[in-house]
Amino acid sequence: TYCASLGNVDGVPVTSFPLDLQETEKVLDILTVYHVDTIVHFAAQSHVDHCFGDPLCFTQDNVCGTHALLEAAKRYGQLQRFLHVSTDEVYGETVTDRLFVENDALRPTTVYAATKAAAEMLVHSYMQSLSVPAMMVRGNNVFGPRQFPEKVIPRFIVALLKGEPCTVHGKGKTRRNFLFVEDMCSAVWTILQHGSIGEVYNVGADPAEERTVMDIVKTLVHMIHPASRVEDHVVFVEDRPQNDFTYRVDSSRLHALGWSPRTAFADGLKQTIAFFRASSS
């Protein structure tokens, strides 16, 4: 997609194939030639703001793209694991103090979340009836170096480094948990090594570390412009048509496999700021 960059894997010993997941024959050829045993499916349209203006794009990429990849996996027939990466947003908004667990009903409130839930249903059906050995992950918001700067944390960092204001939806009172990218990667690796086929795993930061959007702005301003007033770096804009207040997930199933997040939020922010500061220079 537009937010991908092959530069992110420069110097990394990987083989890249820029293609559309819906090119099933090409995907099948790659699986066959390289004797692939594991697919980790991160590919998706994921920027919620865009789903209000171009919702069909999300269906095409997130649902049809996943379906095509599953079909290639089924036809290949040699996979040991198909790990589908979903989102905590499939549960819908948290309205009580109770944390979502993996067998809770899915009640998505945006087109983005609905397409991810629909993709999950396809994964489940291919696992149940067509023998694709699948597992699923539902994660909190992820952040870190190299993230495309449309997402809230890199967007704020880039704005502050440029001396521009942070644009905040509504009053910035929505709350989110954020997981550093290395912790997300370690969660995926743990599931690939120790997870069970057919299971779903929530991947969440400590619920006690939940923050409002304005909390994030304040922290970043203090890190980047410590002598400034926070209000000098904020512009409030119209809220999204739908902006869920929060999502809270219970990660006990994953903790039982030996995983827990290791990166403190502030440490993750420092690494992310350092990356974008170096990139801007």
Could you name the CATH class?
Alpha Beta
Number of domains: 1
Give, in spatial order, the strands making up the sheet with the most strands. Answer: 1-2-3-8
Written as H for each helix and E for each strand, in order along the chain, the element string is HEHHEHEEHEEEHEEHEHH
Largest sheet: 4 strands, parallel
Contiguous helical run count: 9
In helices, the fraction of residues equals 40-55%
- What's the CATH architecture? 3-Layer(aba) Sandwich
Low-confidence stretches: none
Backbone shape: globular
Structural class by sheet pairing and helices: alpha/beta
What percent of residues are in strands? 5-15%
What is the average per-residue confidence, as pLDDT, rounded to a whole number?
A: 93
The CATH superfamily is known as: NAD(P)-binding Rossmann-like Domain
- The total count of strands amounts to 10
Calculate Rg over CA atoms: 19 Å
Q: What is the terminal-to-terminal distance?
A: 25 Å
Instruction: Look up the CATH topology.
Output: Rossmann fold
